[in-house]
Design a protein that fits this description.
The structure holds 2 protein chains of 2 kinds.
Chain A: H1 3-13, E1 18-20, E2 29-32, H2 37-46, E3 54-63, E4 68-77, E5 82-91, E6 96-98, H3 107-118, E7 121-123
Chain B: H1 2-10, H2 19-28, H3 40-50, E1 73-77, H4 82-94, E2 100-104, H5 105-110, E3 133-135, H6 142-157, E4 172-173, H7 182-194
Helix pairs in contact in B: 2-6, 3-6, 6-7
Classes of the chains: A alpha/beta, B alpha/beta.
Amino acid sequence: MIISILKDAIYLKYGDFVLEKSEISLVKEVIIKQSKFLEFMQLVKDDKDLKFDILLDHTAVDYINENVFHLVYHLYSSIYNHQVIILVEVPRDKPVISTLCSIWRIAEWQEREVFDLFGILYNNHPDLRRIFLEDDWVGFPLRKNYKDNFMLEK
Amino acid sequence: MENLNSLTTNNQAVILTNLEKILNWARANSLWPLTFGTSCCAIEMMMATGSAHYDLSRFGAEVVRVSPRQADVLIVAGTIVKRMAKPLKMLFNQMMDPKYVIATGSCTISGGPFIYNSYTTIRGVDKLIPVDVYVPGCPPRPEALFWGILVLQKMILQNSLFKNKKTRYRPVLAALPEGICIEEIHNEMKNILKSKKYL
């Protein structure tokens, strides 16, 4: 499906959940309110017209000037072959969001990776440990203000 | 003694040499590399060792060994991160003497594009293991890797790499000179294998 039509469908059906609507048709992102995030994801997965049954990727972006993290979820429907990117903003000083493990099982490891590198905390996650770095690592390296003794700064 | 010398010059059946030279000749012409690649330099290394066009196997490096106990040369191809440092050291220690190390590409030589603001990249593999030949490039072409191996072969033949097991000579930067094509390197390698100059 063309991304603008898909986005319009989401805006029309789930308008309450959307934080801001972007008018640019090429942008794939849909920005969602943090408070209704888990509910929205469950609805989108079960919706018979959308059927987002696969969580392709999950990552985060650190916007240090705006003092927020953008959590990025790539959703894909293997039935209708369409894809959308869901964005959620969380504040940098309190990066807490609920886990998606109950909806997509793969989210468990993807969230562990984001926790490892960005330090996002997931509520109700079954096993929130570091996945790539050593267990005794201090800090979260992909945050923009990360520093350690090993790093050479330019 | 004169009789023997005349024998070698007139009749090619006998070659007079010493043990060190024949050992070096054998070592230089059977450099078995270890399978070790961590990123894009490894693709070029695979092209050099495996592909039919470049074909390193004609010059003694015929099998890329999976076991470090059977390998002679460790071609460090690719970025080495903190997590990889320990396995790399272990592989190097498991290799039999005489062992040689070629560092290919800017990441292995100095950290390359990841020198600054990287929390995990080792800035130069020579901080972990002793390197004999540096092959610059990002990544180096197969020709450049061949040039590095040729330089290593010549170092071994001149016995300049090892006095004994413990002493190591200064490492060499083997940058591919301009205007050298793969055929010339191949010919030089054939020369090393066949010429009696090195025996």
